[in-house]
Design a protein that fits this description.
This protein has 129 residues and is α/β, with parallel strands linked by helices. The chain has 6 helices and 5 strands, in the order βααβααβααββ. It has one domain: 5'-nuclease (Rossmann fold), CATH 3.40.50.1010. It is globular and about 35 Å long.
């Protein structure tokens, strides 16, 4: 199974605090992990604003993900065209792209965003924490 980890999942992964359900999926060798370039961008920006929950070194996180053979998902024009298709849950583009990318790529989004619990798309998984 292909899994796209949203920004919060990446932060929990870096901190070693993934919810049990998510950790099971992430550690399953049959699953292929993806991370969005948008998440790295968001971590850099939020860290520069001094947010306490974004203390992770984004360069080290990206390197670690790539060293682990996780796949970086860059933004394409198809992803951009899809940002209007998801439910209008989020106005923030950092939060909309991780909804559009898995839809376009056929990847399961691994997220903790409670706003997505109402999303009826089959590619959204919200682990309990």
């Amino acid at each position: 199974m292909k899994l796209l980890l949203d920004t919060q999942m990446l932060l929990w992964l870096a901190a070693g605090t993934l919810p049990n359900e998510a950790e099971t999926l992430v550690l399953d060798v049959d699953n292929k992990l993806y991370f969005s370039s948008v998440s790295i961008w968001k971590i850099c920006i939020d860290k520069s604003f001094g947010r306490d929950d974004f203390k992770v070194n984004s360069e080290a996180l990206r390197s670690s993900l790539l060293d682990n053979r996780d796949q970086e998902l860059s933004i394409t024009s198809l992803h951009i065209l899809s940002v209007n298709d998801p439910p209008q849950i989020h106005k923030n583009p950092f939060d909309r792209m991780p909804i559009a990318q898995p839809k376009t790529e056929g990847i399961l989004l691994l997220t903790s965003d409670s706003d997505l619990r109402e999303h009826t798309g089959p590619r959204i998984f919200v682990p309990k924490r």
